[in-house]
């Protein structure tokens, strides 16, 4: 018995060791990723529920590393946040996405761009100036940019975040509340902060056809949105029946594999050709 315990302990610490090694490798590789051009953006269309028109795209970051392969952002963003790399990486996201979308702005004047911003990046003094400057440099109206933030993260610094979001809102940017319904959602956030869109997390959308509780939840999120005049966007829509039900409930925008997967700019251009320009 004692031996067994010792062994399981050994396996356990080996496991931990492996995890921390992986993280150390990831951190050191991430340090070189910007300079080596390993980071790039993909774009996923957001579609109007009623007309089926493409209203905008969400920029999503990708990291392709020679040693680690394609690392999902869910894994490397938290590492970047921990080791002080989120600001340079976040700036790269803003710069690249604005530049690329500015390149097709002439053909799609009303195409909007959603950008994920981590709270650390947001409260970092330079963010607001940086994004305003880039909009000016690339000649993109601020009103085309949606800044996606995740509300579970701003339990601390609420006052500071509230202030910043109000300033950004005053600059003409839209604010989108990501992953709504997960974490420590509180309805007062919708009232206190200048929120222009609520994104219903894909974990609720996934089971909307089979789970009456998720259905009830989504229905009430949409109706709260309607009463506060905040449009709702459902993410992770994979199935036409999900889309039909969400539209029946009054959801305004859809994003998900049913319409398109995230794609590089070149493929986005081809995708958009299938749609009438605004
Ligand atoms: P998110 O902001 O909630 O993004 C939605 C995620 O759902 C994306 O994963 C997207 O590819 C995926 N998705 C879209 N449609 C479907 C669908 O129909 N089915 C399923 N199963 N998944 C779908 P991705 O690109 O792996 O990003 C994961 C998370 O990483 C994002 O979640 C976001 O929190 C973070 N992230 C991505 N890019 C950035 C970035 O530039 N900056 C920051 N701070 N975070 C980012
Ligand atoms: Ca997002
Ligand atoms: Ca989400
Ligand atoms: Ca997220």
Helix/strand structural class: alpha/beta
How many DSSP E strands? 9
Please give the oligomerization state of what you see: single chain
Mean pLDDT: 91
**Amino-to-carboxy terminus distance:** 71 Å
Uncertain stretches: none
The shape is: globular
Radius of gyration: 20 Å
Protein name: EAL domain-containing protein
Please describe what this structure looks like:
The protein is α/β, with parallel strands linked by helices. It contains 11 helices and 9 strands. It has helices at 2-33, 73-82, 86-105, 119-123, 127-138, 158-170, 187-192, 202-206, 212-227, 240-249, 265-273; strands spanning 39-48, 54-65, 69-71, 112-116, 145-150, 174-180, 197-200, 232-235, 253-255. The protein has an 8-stranded mixed β-barrel with strand order 1-2-4-5-6-7-8-9, surrounded by 5 helices. A hairpin with a 3-residue loop joins strand 2 (54-65) and strand 3 (69-71). Residues 44, 60-61, 72-74, 77, 93, 116-118, 178-179, 202, 235-238, 255-257, 262 line the site of ligand C2E. Residues 23-276 form the EAL domain. This is EAL domain-containing protein.
Write a brief structural summary:
This protein has eleven helices and nine strands.
What keyword list fits this structure?
278 residues; single chain; 19% strand; binds calcium ion; eight-stranded mixed beta barrel; globular; alpha/beta
């Amino acid at each position: 018995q004692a031996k067994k315990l010792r062994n399981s302990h050994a396996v356990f610490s080996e496991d931990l060791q492996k995890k921390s090694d992986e993280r150390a490798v990831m951190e050191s590789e991430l340090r070189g990723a910007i300079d080596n051009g390993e980071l790039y953006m993909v774009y996923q269309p957001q579609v109007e529920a009623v007309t089926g028109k493409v209203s905008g795209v969400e920029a999503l970051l990708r990291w392709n590393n020679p040693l680690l392969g394609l690392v999902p952002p869910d894994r490397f963003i938290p590492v970047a946040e921990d080791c002080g790399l989120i600001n340079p990486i976040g700036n790269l996201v803003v710069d690249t996405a604005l530049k690329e979308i500015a390149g097709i702005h002439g053909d799609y004047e009303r195409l909007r761009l959603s950008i994920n911003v981590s709270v650390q990046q947001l409260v970092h003094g330079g963010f607001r100036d940086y994004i305003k400057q880039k909009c000016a440099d690339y000649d993109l109206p601020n009103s085309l940019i949606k800044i996606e933030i995740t509300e579970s993260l701003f339990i601390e610094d609420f006052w500071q975040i509230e202030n910043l979001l109000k300033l950004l809102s005053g600059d003409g940017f839209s604010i989108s509340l990501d992953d709504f319904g997960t974490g420590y959602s509180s309805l007062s956030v919708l009232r206190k902060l200048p929120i222009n869109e609520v994104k219903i997390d894909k974990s609720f959308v996934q089971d909307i056809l089979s789970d009456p509780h998720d259905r009830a939840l989504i229905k009430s999120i949409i109706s709260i949105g309607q009463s506060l005049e905040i449009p709702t966007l459902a993410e992770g829509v994979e199935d036409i029946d999900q889309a039909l039900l969400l539209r029946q409930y009054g959801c305004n925008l859809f994003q998900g594999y049913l319409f398109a997967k995230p794609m590089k700019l070149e493929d986005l251009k081809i995708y958009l050709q299938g749609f009438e320009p605004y």
